[in-house]
């Protein structure tokens, strides 16, 4: 068993153990990858205070996100295709999240279906919705999430069209991978991945294939998804979906204070300040820099979460101290999954939990609920003076 001390260790194992096209799919941003890089780099600009001679016994990280109890303010972000990073990946990750007491968000573009994940877990998970043009399919998808007792609908707003990731085009990304001389040569070095994949039936987009007329094979699916994302999505449509769902709603992909105000107006339980991990608008501001102006715009009336760029418990602490109520990790849990399956996702959560706990203790706090701006040092002009 390798000694895993940080998220980067899992990333390296993921790289070694997973077919290149899936590791690259995870480890890339759109176009020049500027926003992808800045998401992580900008977190480092915020320094943590160190206080001494403060009783640090009896610490707790337990809190609430959208009123639901969480063991720490860290959820697993929705990530598409994770059943290709490791066989049955979504089920494995959902189980690890359940054991750790944190929310798991299942992507619309998952390999394991909503029903599959519900069947293999005992606690409700969150479902992430991409809005599609096919209204009939959209309604049925929402109903399926309701039937599976999902406890929140996370509506992603920043992917009506797809940001281009060069590596995916060059690698010919597909699920399952098409067999070419290059993919065969790569797969020959990824035996465990291949054997596990042969043992599962789950190798197609489980929420789509078999649920949409005429979409049975993956080649047609690619065409279908490219045409199906609803470019006409607007606030009115979001309101309709919200009504249809009738439960807690989280709006994901807010980066601008004006949109945060509109999200508050439409009514939702939380927003996620996110640039999709730098995979959509390249050149957009990093999430952590976008956080403060958004918090100021919405005041105390709206719960604000954040993702994009979190790679450690210290980053979680930075985000919570800035004023976010909750955080999400995307790539860190996928690295864990690709590295070691369910045990790897568990390890990613343990690493982050341990780092968060100790970093919080060093700031002189014992309860995550009491973490605030006094725990950090934010450089002047951090959120930018933009014209
Ligand atoms: C490989 C990959 C696939 C993703 N797929 C989805 C998806 O299906 N739905 C969604 O809302 N966000 C998706 N995201 C974005 C994540 O939910 C999240 O916003 C992002 O990963 C956070 O950044 P981080 O990876 O730096 O933690 C994806 C991200 C990655 C890296």
UniProtKB/TrEMBL annotation:
FMN binds at residues 78-80, 107, 128, 130, 156, 252, 274, 307-311, 330-331. Its cofactor is FMN. InterPro entries: Aldolase_TIM (IPR013785), Alpha-hydoxy_acid_DH_FMN (IPR012133), FMN-dep_DH (IPR000262), FMN_HAD (IPR037396), FMN_hydac_DH_AS (IPR008259). GO terms for cellular component: plasma membrane. It comes from the Bacteria. Glyoxylate binds at residues 25, 165, 276, 279. The active site is at 276 (proton acceptor). One of its GO terms (molecular function) is FMN binding. Gene3D superfamilies: Aldolase class I (3.20.20.70). SUPFAM superfamilies: FMN-linked oxidoreductases. It holds the Pfam family FMN_dh. Residues 1-381 form the FMN hydroxy acid dehydrogenase domain. Keywords: Flavoprotein, FMN, Oxidoreductase. PANTHER family: 2-HYDROXYACID OXIDASE 1, S -2-HYDROXY-ACID OXIDASE-RELATED. Belongs to the FMN-dependent alpha-hydroxy acid dehydrogenase family. This is L-lactate dehydrogenase, putative. It comes from Pseudooceanicola batsensis (strain ATCC BAA-863 / DSM 15984 / KCTC 12145 / HTCC2597).
């Amino acid at each position: 068993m390798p000694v895993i001390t940080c998220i980067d260790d899992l990333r390296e194992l993921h790289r070694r153990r997973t077919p290149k096209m899936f590791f690259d799919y995870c480890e890339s941003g759109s176009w020049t990858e500027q926003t992808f890089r800045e998401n992580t780099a900008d977190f480092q600009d915020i320094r943590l205070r160190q206080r001494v001679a403060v009783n640090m016994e009896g610490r707790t990280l337990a809190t609430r996100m959208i009123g639901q109890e969480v063991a720490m303010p860290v959820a697993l972000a929705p990530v598409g295709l994770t059943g290709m990073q490791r066989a049955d990946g979504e089920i494995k990750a959902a189980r690890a999240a359940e054991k750790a007491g944190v929310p798991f968000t299942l992507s619309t573009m998952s390999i394991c279906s909503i029903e599959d994940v519900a069947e293999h877990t005992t606690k409700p998970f969150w479902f992430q919705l991409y809005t599609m043009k096919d209204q009939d399919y959209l309604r049925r998808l929402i109903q399926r999430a309701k039937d599976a007792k999902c406890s929140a609908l996370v509506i992603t707003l920043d992917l009506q069209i797809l940001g281009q990731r060069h590596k995916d085009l060059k690698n010919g990304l597909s699920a399952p991978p098409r067999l070419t001389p290059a993919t065969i040569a790569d797969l020959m070095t990824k035996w465990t991945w291949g054997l596990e994949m042969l043992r599962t039936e789950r190798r197609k987009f489980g929420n789509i294939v078999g649920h949409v007329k005429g979409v049975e094979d993956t080649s047609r699916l690619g065409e279908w998804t490219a045409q199906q994302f609803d470019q006409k999505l607007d606030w009115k449509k979001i309101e309709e979906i919200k009504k249809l769902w009738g439960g807690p709603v989280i709006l994901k992909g807010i980066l601008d204070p004006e949109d945060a105000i509109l999200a508050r107006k439409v009514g939702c339980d939380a927003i996620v300040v996110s640039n999709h991990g730098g995979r959509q608008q390249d050149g957009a501001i990093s999430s952590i820099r976008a956080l403060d102006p958004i918090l100021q715009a919405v005041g105390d009336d709206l719960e604000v979460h954040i993702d994009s760029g979190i790679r450690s418990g210290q980053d979680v602490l930075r985000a919570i101290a800035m004023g976010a109520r909750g955080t999400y990790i995307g790539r860190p849990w996928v690295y864990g999954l690709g590295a070691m399956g369910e045990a790897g996702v568990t390890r990613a959560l343990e690493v982050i939990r341990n780092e968060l706990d100790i970093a919080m203790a060093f700031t002189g706090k014992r309860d995550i609920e009491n973490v605030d701006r006094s725990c950090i040092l934010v450089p002047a002009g951090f959120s930018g003076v933009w014209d």
